[in-house]
Amino acid sequence: MTPLRRFSLFLWFLLSHLPPVSPGRLLMPVIFLGSWTALQAVHVQDSIAFVWAGVLAQAAQIWSTLPVTVRRHRFTFGRASYATSRAMAILLCFLSLQIWWSEPWLSQRLVSIYCALYATLMALGVWGDSDIINRFAPVSKDSDAPLDFRRHLLKLYAMVAILVIATNETLIALDTALGTRVVTLSILPIALHYFFAITLLLTHPPLDDSDA
Q: What is the C-alpha separation between 125 and 108, in angstroms, rounded?
């Protein structure tokens, strides 16, 4: 088999095994872009429109993932963790602060801070914190998913968070137009979804059905 044919077969295998983007993952960028467009249409000031569009998108994402988070914690720990309630309170404070300050750079910087904290938690899980592993890479009691695979997932989660920080801070540093920031940050979750899926396929073999 020629190298070109081998590469073509590998590329076909890779693309055919990519998971589709779920509606939940599309919710945040759609609301962000849609809210920005609607607020621009009624001539709201650009900076205020950016902040409100971002807050609405973040709130929608939190609301849509909350039931899944609660079910996951109940499944893993037998109850909804108190840490979940504290995390929700902190996120609501972040949203309120953005509305009160109404500065695009602050909204983006808070996202960077959140991602930095998230990446730090993932690093602690990779280094052996079992509580973090169970929270962010949970498995059922009868699952045979290896610990190395779960730690590998945390590494990829941390890498995705770092890419968000890099993109976010680059947009701030270059002082790009707010419209450009909205489009870039709306595309970013979809791009990161495929980055994660491709990287996982390239760096770790798929688990058997019995290990999932």
A: 26
37-50 exposure pattern, b = at least 16 Cβ within 10 A, e = fewer: eebbeeeeebeebb
**Does the pLDDT of residue 157 top 90, yes or no?**
yes
Q: Quickly tell me which residue has 């872009």 as its tokens.
A: 33
**Do residues 33 and 179 touch, judged by C-beta distance below 8 A?**
no
What's the pLDDT tens digit per position in 53-112? 999 999 988 887 765 665 555 555 555 556 667 777 888 888 999 999 999 999 999 999
- How large is the average pLDDT for residues 8-32? 81
Burial (CB < 10 A; 0-12, 13-18, 19+), residue 170, is exposed
Chain-centre distance for alpha carbon 170:
18
User: What is the model's pLDDT at position 153?
Assistant: 94
**CA pair distance 56, 169, nearest whole angstrom:** 21
DSSP for residue 137: S
Q: How far apart are the C-alpha atoms of 147 and 150, rounded to whole Å?
A: 5
Residue 32 to residues 45, 55, 59, 166, Cα–Cα distance (Å): 16, 8, 10, 20
Torsion sign, CA atoms 89, 95, 98, 102: negative
Element (H, E) at 169: helix 147-173
